[in-house]
Fold:
Amino acid sequence: MTNPVSHAIELVDIRKAYGDVVAVDGVSLAIAHGEFFSLLGPSGCGKTTTLRVIAGFATLDAGDVRLGGVSTTHVPPHRRDVNTVFQQYALFPHMTVEENVGFGLRVRKASRSDIRAAVGDALDMVRLHGCEGRRPTELSGGQQQRVALARALVNRPSVLLLDEPLAALDLKLRQEMRDELKRLQREVGITFVYVTHDQDEAMALSDRMAVMNGGRVEQVGPGPDVYEHPSNRFVADFIGATNFVPVQVLSVDAGVALTQTVGVGAARLRAQARVHLAPGERSTLSVRPEHVRLVPRSEPTGDANGLAGTVADRTYLGATVEYRVRVGDEAELVVVEPTGGGSGQVQPGADVSVLWSVGDSWLLSD
Ligand SMILES: Nc1ncnc2c1ncn2[C@@H]1O[C@H](COP(=O)(O)OP(=O)(O)OP(=O)(O)O)[C@@H](O)[C@H]1O
Ligand SMILES: [Mg+2]
Structure:
């Protein structure tokens, strides 16, 4: 029996080691029905292992995987209502598109007319009508990826696991397929668990994401939340570019800390303090490059939050201009401004003030 209020997937303190290597180390997650959920993290952090555990291809050392509220401890992979699309999508080269997509149904001895109808529906979903008779070698990379998706969708699983499905495609195609995937997931309403190490992809696609590192989950939340409020240094660094300034806490009042920089001049900076910090403690202040602005040093800054520096480098990137600003002896801050806006005239060598709002800067735990 499926519990109607249950989650599509619950990982309860799961652990999986391969010999001495702990691939997944105490991960707990609850993924809602119909959610587009991403596992995001660097190579080797345990993303594929987590998918394999959900699918039942890898056995757990500890913890439990629940699908629709039901423990899967004794449920073999082929009895789980889950399909997987692997990075190497491994289409059968000697079969046509239609045969590839219908393969699973033929194995399960579905009737010829049922297979035809289901394959037709699946090819509709991935917009591949007219290609039924072709073989994989006669398709583009993006089309092959669609066949792999159709082959998984034809079974109408309640959960679809996707392991870096777009990694083999070039950038343009990857962006197109990204939009397709999002549309498809909305249309079919299936729960997607999507593995990627590409933060843009995770940001564009997911309702929520889990950022993983060394077999553990560092943070879970909607993309904008994770980006705007990274809970620690690893997440801030992994999700988008950010500036770090080492500081010492002087005082904390109503969630805002007054700090003193360490090693980069002796400026006083205010920042939001979400983590618990006591006066005297060392911390790291984080501020995104797009939240920092440059003004010539000669202009008064009032009591604005910021540091004095010298522009070391200016790089034109089309839509934006990126500045590297040297502050203190060895620290550098990156500032990104829209081209034509902000301080477009500032050249390397210029003495500047680098300013940002207190609300755009955060103290992080390490
Ligand atoms: N079959 C295996 N035998 C031994 N070690 C393994 C095995 N599979 C994975 N590992 C190890 O477990 C850790 C996690 O691997 P996993 O494949 O889950 O990482 P990943 O996040 O998917 O990485 P990538 O982004 O490179 O695909 C790594 O250290 C890896 O070397
Ligand atoms: Mg992997």
